[in-house]
Amino acid sequence: MEENEISLQGVGENKKKKLFAKIRNIILVAGGIVIAFGAGRYSALFDGSSTANNTIITKEVAEKAEAVQKVIDKYYLEEEQIKDVQEGVYKGMLDALGDPYSVYYTKEEYDSFQESYEGKYCGIGASLIENAETGIITIVKAFEGSPAKEAGLQTDDIVYKVDGEEVTGIDLTEVVSRVKGLEGTAVTLTILRNGEEQDLEILRKTISVPTVEYEMLENNMGYIIISEFDEITLQQWNEAYEALKNQGMTSLIVDLRNNPGGGLSVVANILDTVLPEGMIVYHEDKYGNRDNYTSDEEHKIDIPLAVLVNGNSASASEIFAGAVKDYGVGTLIGTTTFGKGIVQQMISLGDGSAMKVTISKYYTPKGVCIHGTGIEPDITLEFDSQKYLEDETDNQLQKAIEILTNK
């Protein structure tokens, strides 16, 4: 689980109001999504290299676990669900690392993760993020034409409960799996908006996730929004870029605001179409082993470029922004990015379950690790939410248009 659960059950009204105020005032930032995706069998991990110092199941641990089980058998009122307890042990081992990005997934959770990564699932059509520090889950976007949009779900709504159960602090993948379900069935989200609780009943349907949207602005200026870097994003990027180029695009704005990340290979392949020949990104593990991702000389952007970022631009988004900044091929506009400069790998455990583990740090082409600090834009500009509410003017986008118009 990515943080301790904030429970509002069984507290007095005054305490509840204070907790609601605390939640409302917390600055919501992206927890980030897996940026390195791989697979392996659990048998490959146990190669005899473990030492007594890092052995978890010692004699003392086994004896204590047996004592705990005897107490449960003798005193626990309800019937024990053995499978749930076993899964809880595995989750606890990852949770005890103190790393919000290292997580154990049951078979059902892992299936849900893979489904989302492939870009098609049965759900409500909304993108969610989880704050790694607070465990608070918020809506990034409700997709146009989706059940979530039709039900009135909005950006920055806090997802407090799913079908009546609190979800703050629960791993995002598990929460997403609860929101998904069979087509035509309903899920009820209890959301917090401006400190007020609201229940939204939403009917699930099959969703094809649009991770890339694009349009041609005035003066042949292309505009591409990437909401996350999933398996299907590279194809959608290529289609968007080619379509804009065929329409006579002479400059380009790439919008990575509120993009929580995605696949490392996906963003590297997209950057290969943008950067000149050279290093895109590299990551290094605790043994000093490095993996390099490089671009070739075949493709590179040859028109003025601006990239929009904010505090919710995390992991793979920061790889994109960091490479653009280091090569000087575009102008970063917005606010400092989230600062997730570590890589996770998904490892299959052979029985349908899996674990996501932090394995390395990544570095921009100039060798900078941005973990904990983020990337500072070339032009720092806070988003004017009041102006946007008044007349839907996006001041950050307008600044990008101004910069490219003058190039």
What's the quick description here?
The chain has helices at 13-25, 59-75, 82-95, 107-118, 147-151, 172-179, 233-246, 264-272, 316-327, 385-391, 395-405, and strands spanning 103-105, 120-123, 126-130, 137-142, 158-162, 165-166, 186-193, 196-203, 205-208, 212-217, 221-226, 251-255, 278-285, 290-295, 305-309, 331-334, 342-348, 354-363, 379-380.
Which helices and strands appear, and what pairs or packs with what?
Layout (H helix, E strand, L loop, with lengths): L12 H13 L33 H17 L6 H14 L7 E3 L1 H12 L1 E4 L2 E5 L6 E6 L4 H5 L6 E5 L2 E2 L5 H8 L6 E8 L2 E8 L1 E4 L3 E6 L3 E6 L6 H14 L4 E5 L8 H9 L5 E8 L4 E6 L9 E5 L6 H12 L3 E4 L7 E7 L5 E10 L15 E2 L4 H7 L3 H11 L2
Parallel strand pairs: 11-12, 12-15, 15-16, 16-19
Antiparallel strand pairs: 1-18, 2-9, 3-4, 4-5, 5-6, 5-7, 7-8, 10-11, 13-14, 13-18, 17-18
Helix pairs in contact: 4-6, 7-8, 8-9
Q: Give start-end ranges of low-pLDDT stretches.
A: 1-52
Write down the overall geometry.
Answer: globular
Main sheet overview? 6 strands, antiparallel
Compute the separation of the termini in Å: 47 Å
| Strand element count | 19
Quickly give the structural class.
Answer: alpha+beta
Rg, alpha carbons: 23 Å
Write down the CATH topology of the largest domain.
2-enoyl-CoA Hydratase, Chain A, domain 1
Along the chain, the helix and strand elements come as HHHEHEEEHEEHEEEEEHEHEEEHEEEEHH
Number of helices: 11
The CATH homologous superfamily of the largest domain is called: 2-enoyl-CoA Hydratase, Chain A, domain 1
**Percent of residues in beta strands:** 25-35%
Provide the CATH top-level class of the largest domain. Alpha Beta
Domain module tally: 3
Relative helix content: 25-40%
Tell me which CATH architecture of the largest domain applies here. Alpha-Beta Complex
State mean pLDDT (0 to 100 scale): 84
